[in-house]
Amino acid sequence: MLDDKTYGELREIAARYPEPRSGLLPMLHLVQSVEGRVTPEGIEACAEILDISAADVSGVATFYTMYKRRPVGDYHVGVCTNTLCAVMGGDLIFERLKGHLDVGNDETTEDGKITLEHVECNAACDYAPVMMVNWEFMDNMTPESAVQLVDDLRAGAEVTSTRGPRVVTWREAERVLAGFPDDLADAGPAAGPASLVGLGIARDRGWSAPHPESDAGDSSTAGSKTEAVEQADTSRAETETKQEEGKE
Ligand code: FES
Fold this sequence. Notes:
The protein is α+β, with helices and mostly antiparallel strands. It is built from 9 helices and 5 strands. Strands 2-3-1-4-5 form a 5-stranded mixed beta sheet.
């Protein structure tokens, strides 16, 4: 049941945008934070506030996989089974967790604590195999650490993301996605060593990106961009050649 406070916050979200219907995605997250899923009442509320049809809202809510029509547990646990994570152990982790939790894909444990889902690439392939708890990263997982993770969550132990804050409940995380911050956004490390390897190599070798401002005032922008890229490629090749020669 959506109360007056929630209706007020739904209107507040819609009012953030020049086109109110642009607020539909965060509004649906707010519905999930209150109801634990996108309910028919939540759909009607969004439709009424945005002056669009319930079918329009349903079309959005059923298109994106982050919107759930069935109740989600206290913690949404995602296992990346996209190509790189899968071959690095994601498939094994997912199978182990299905057995350990006695649930299938997109199902919730009997105690209502964990909803397990296999998810697509999280752009964190440098930490494969990756899991997500309420969309916070858990890097370099193994079947054993995955079992420990869900056991800790079920036991109410404090769990911290590898590259983020302590894990909150799914409903609390949904409220943040609705645009109501919990002030944890800057907690924990923002980037790990694996993501910065390329930067270190570029610095060691003196590589840098071409500067867009060097094109300013040049009428043949496309041509100068091409030249800048060619120049960068050339200097990179020269650096590599010198380094190779130095090894010999
Ligand atoms: S394949 Fe898993 S994060 Fe990219």
